[in-house]
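Quick review question:
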């Protein structure tokens, strides 16, 4: 993390960044040739299992944002506020604008088997032709289908994705930011609007979906109760940012040349390319790539990979068993264990839900005729080598589908701290990896606010500023013929699961 600075020429922006396991409020300071970031408040994001399913505790999340803005308000400098969060999940509002129940968690099982019914009505090829969206069982379109006929959905008048819900509570305004809207399966990938013909075919009331906003648009001003609670001045604006956290992270990719691929690496690994237009071919659909909106009309052509969620669930299980779970110790042990002893497909469905992840990994290995990893270090090596191979497979496939040459990989997010994963990704892909910034999502949030305030220029200018000001680590692929052959052989063993339509 860079050292925060103070300057009369700098703008100060509060970024509320909600992740799957925690949220935080960050303060960013932007000035000529300067970009600083500091964390002012962090709070847990702990889902709640209720009799009807797994839900997000959105009231606790909003309280965390208010607490963070209260700390930020003590600086007396905040120029605006922006909110980003994860995709696909939503809250439903009634005619009075009140929330109808806690939003479901995307890992809830209620969508199991729902996609088949939707695809029977629309067809997988047609759905992809319109939305360009990767098939995931928890996409918003399938979540809404699972709620069909419920009292809650029939009562609802407005659907707000998670960051839009937080903005609504901050400002009273209603809108849908387009980078997150593009993840729903209800958005026209070519036209950049809600797909009204699709909505009609699925029986979804178009009025349920609010007007679209673009990153940089004003979202409103803080409501009086918010300013009273936080101490921020009346009239403090809320700026629409790239509210899908991956879209914000891609803004802060420190690329200085166009021939890059990116990995936004945390709970999920989002691996792909930035394009000018979507790739809606049958080959792209069969490979399960998504075309999501980015800043300035760009397309995030990528594929979701299960990511470091698997490792974190392993650590949670070991902690419950009283075993050491320090990441440095686990990585050191993993580095000493036998390479490529066992590999898994990170996207196998058994790794999606919370649970005893080490045992699920061992069961997968036994089922596929591999030795089951015993020690925590062997499990960690299995996870990280498998992720590096998934990165290789996905980025090579993306480049082929888009007709692009890739010269380097930018790995941003929490995974940039994991030196083994960064080095093994370089080795597996045969490409140099630039790791960092770790706080790419919050930086992207801040930069879009700063551009709306006139302090930075276009997307290239923002990225050059990140490259000049943020700590980065460089990993070169090891030029070892035997090592390259070992990664090639491992890649031949690890084929993608044939489960996606």
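Suggested answer, residue by residue:
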């Amino acid at each position: 993390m860079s050292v925060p600075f103070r300057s009369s020429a700098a703008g100060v922006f509060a970024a509320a960044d909600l992740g799957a396991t925690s949220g935080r409020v960050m303060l960013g300071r932007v000035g000529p040739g300067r970009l600083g970031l500091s964390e002012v408040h962090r709070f847990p994001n702990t889902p709640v299992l209720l009799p009807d399913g797994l839900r997000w505790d959105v009231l606790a999340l909003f309280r965390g944002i208010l607490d963070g803005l209260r700390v930020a308000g003590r600086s007396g400098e905040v120029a605006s506020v922006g909110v980003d969060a994860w995709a696909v999940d939503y809250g439903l509002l009634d005619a009075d604008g009140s929330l109808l129940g806690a939003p479901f968690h995307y890992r809830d099982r209620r969508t199991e088997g729902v996609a088949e019914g939707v695809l029977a009505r629309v067809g997988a090829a047609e759905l992809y032709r319109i939305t360009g969206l990767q098939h995931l069982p928890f996409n918003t379109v399938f979540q809404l289908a699972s709620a069909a006929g419920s009292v809650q959905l029939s009562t609802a008048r407005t659907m707000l994705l998670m960051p839009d819900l937080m903005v609504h509570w901050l400002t009273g305004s209603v809108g849908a930011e387009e980078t997150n809207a593009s993840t729903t399966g209800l958005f026209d990938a070519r036209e950049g609007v809600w797909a009204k013909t699709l909505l009609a075919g699925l029986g979804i009331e178009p009025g349920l979906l609010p007007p679209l906003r673009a990153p940089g648009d004003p979202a409103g001003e803080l409501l009086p109760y918010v300013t009273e609670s936080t101490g921020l001045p009346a009239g403090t604006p809320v700026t629409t940012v790239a509210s899908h956290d991956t879209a914000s992270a891609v803004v802060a990719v420190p690329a200085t040349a166009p021939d890059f691929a990116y990995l936004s690496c945390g709970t999920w690994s989002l691996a792909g390319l930035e394009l000018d237009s979507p790739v809606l071919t049958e080959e792209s659909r069969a490979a399960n790539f998504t075309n999501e909106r980015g800043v300035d009309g760009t397309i995030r052509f990528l594929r979701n990979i299960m990511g470091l969620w698997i490792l974190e669930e392993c650590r949670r299980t070991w902690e419950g068993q009283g075993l050491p779970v320090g990441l440095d110790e686990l990585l050191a042990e993993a580095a000493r264990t036998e390479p490529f002893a066992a590999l898994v497909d990170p996207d196998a469905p058994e790794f999606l839900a919370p649970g005893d992840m080490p045992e699920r990994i061992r069961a997968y290995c036994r089922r596929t005729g591999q030795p089951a990893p015993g020690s925590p270090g062997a499990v960690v090596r299995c996870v990280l080598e498998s992720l590096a191979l998934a990165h290789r497979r996905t980025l090579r496939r993306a480049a082929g589908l888009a007709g692009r040459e890739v010269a380097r990989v930018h790995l941003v997010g929490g995974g940039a701290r994991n030196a083994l994963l960064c080095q093994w990704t370089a080795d597996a892909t045969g490409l140099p990896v630039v790791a960092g910034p770790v706080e790419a999502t919050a930086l992207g949030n801040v930069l879009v606010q700063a551009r709306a305030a006139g302090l930075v220029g276009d997307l290239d200018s923002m990225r050059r500023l990140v490259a000049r000001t943020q700590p980065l680590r460089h990993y070169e692929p090891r030029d070892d013929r035997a090592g390259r052959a070992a990664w090639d052989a491992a890649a031949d063993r690890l084929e993608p699961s044939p489960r996606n339509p």
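Why it works: The chain is about 40% helix and 20% strand. The longest strand covers residues 34-44.
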